[in-house]
């Protein structure tokens, strides 16, 4: 007697048409959001310089002020503002710390999605007053030579790491670089678009 029972159809095979329709439907939506918020068309540009192509965070030999090893990858899933300077921290250094703190504060309820890192490139002790002023910033000691291949600079002979602030995205890619003495409104606009785009992607993923 033959067995007429059929093998159960897999979940994927049973619903593959539906999955294809979802992909076809969502693909242009995701592409449009990415193009609008992250890679804008001609006539609508980001204030900061987009890093092309994006650079994944490499292994960097770094440590906290207490000597404990620090891994930049530990901040994955966060937007990370990064600056580089010596421990003496002159006026330019202080202005970058202030800029990063203010930008995080201005995001309001989204501030927990942003981290701040100061790569201290020497062994100079940091001022206690300074550390209290910018509490929440991660103070990380690192040899500048570790950073130079990763943190891109403008094609200029006098370009210096200490002149800029960078943004690393939640996937761990270097994404944006802002100029020396940047316009706070310009940075705020860039960050607002990125956070909005991330929220839209997350919502679409949850609804899928």
Structural notes for this entry:
- Helix 1 (11-38) runs antiparallel to helix 5.
- The chain has a domain at 47-183: Glutaredoxin.
- It has helices at 11-38, 91-106, 128-133, 144-147, 184-207, and strands spanning 49-56, 62-64, 69-70, 79-85, 114-120, 138-142, 165-168, 173-178.
- The chain has 208 residues and is an alpha+beta fold.
- A hairpin with a 4-residue loop joins strand 2 and strand 3.
- The longest helix has 28 residues, at 11-38.
- Residues 203-208 have low confidence and may be disordered.
- The chain starts with 10 loop residues before the first helix and ends with a helix.
- Helix content is 38%, strand content 20%.
- An eight-stranded mixed β-sheet has the order 1-8-7-4-5-6-2-3.
- It has five helices and eight strands; from the N terminus they run H-E-E-E-E-H-E-H-E-H-E-E-H.
